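Field: COMPLEX_INPUT
Field: COMPONENT_COUNT = two
Field: RESIDUE_TOTAL = 349
Field: MODE = joint
Values follow.
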Amino acid sequence: MKTVKKIFSKVLLCLVWVLLSTVIWSWLFNIKTDVSPKKKITVFIDAESVRDDALADYLSSKKPEKIMLIQVHPFSYAMFDEHALTHADIYIVGADNAEKYIESFLPLDKTNENKECFVYDGVSYGIKIYDAQTGDGSAGEYIDYGGQDYYLFYGVNSPHAGEMNGSNDGYAIDIADEIIKLK
Amino acid sequence: MKNIIELYDTASQSKQNRKLKVAKAVFYAFVFAALIFCVILFLLTDVSNEKTMRRIVIIVSGVAGCAAIYFYSFAVIDVKHSAEHAKRMISGEREKLVGTFVIGEKDIKIPGSIIIRPMRVQTDGGEQRINVSAEEVPLLPRDGGRYVLYTVNGYLAAIGVENENG
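Field: COMPLEX_OUTPUT
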C-alpha cells in the first residue's frame, strides 16, 4: 500500500517532465531543421481545423527541386511569433478575417483577373478557394473551412511570389496551384 | 554486565554508503546514456528524417525521465536519508533514558529525512517522547520491560538491559 502511494505520488512529476521534454525537444528540432525562407514555402491557414502535417506531406511530394521544405501551420502556431505569421508565402483565410491581415497580402496580378477574388479598396488580393454556400472548395480533405468563404492569398514578404513582388522565382504560385487543384 | 543493542554501527554504515554510491552511479549512468542517445539522434536529424527522429527522441526522453524519477525516488533518496541518519546517530552525543516504552503504530515521514515511529518512554521523572527509525523497529523488544535507551537528538540510537547490580 505504501509502495502504491509512493508510485502515485510521482505521477504528477512525471507528467510535468513529459510535457516539458516534449516542448523543449520540439522547439530544438524546429530550430535544427528550419531552412532559410529562400529554400522553403510556408503556408498559414486560418480555418476551424487543419490537417497540417498531412497537407505538408502532400505538398512536399509536389515541391520544386530547389525548395527543401514545405511547412503548413494553423494561425495559432504563430501565437508568439508575429514575424512567422507576417512572412509566410501563402495564406488561406476566411472572408470575415481577411481585412485584419490585408497588409500581409500581395495584390494579385492581371493573370488572376478572370478568377473570383477577394477585393479590398478596389484591389484584388485573394483567390476564392472555398464557397460556403455550395460547399465547393479545394483541399477539403485537409482543411475544415467552416461557414464562410475562404480565399488564398500570397504573402507580401514571400521570396517566391514571382512577378507580383519581383521575387526570383514563382514557387509559391506553383504550390498554390497544387492546393487549388486538390479536390 | 550490560547488554546493548546498537542500532547503528560503522560496519552497517559503510555497507549503506556503498549501496548509496552504487545506486547513484547507476542513476547518473542511466541519465547520461539516455541524454547522449537523444543528443546523437538530434544531431543526426535533417529535413528528410525529422519526423521520425523527433518522435523517437521525445518518447525516449519521456520514458527515460520517468524511469529516472522513480529510480531516484525508490533506490537513491531513501538510502541517502538512511545513511545520513546513521551518520548522525554514530557521531552524535548520546543521552540516556531508563524506563519502559511504547512504540507508535503509524509510520511518519520526516520531510527530507527518514521514516520514523514515535515512542513514549515512561521514566521515573515522567513521560518522554523520542523517535526511532521505522527500519529499526523490528530490532526492539516488545515485552514492556524496563530498558536503558540511548538517544541522539531525540532519536533512539541504542537500547540496553538495565544492570540491577550496577
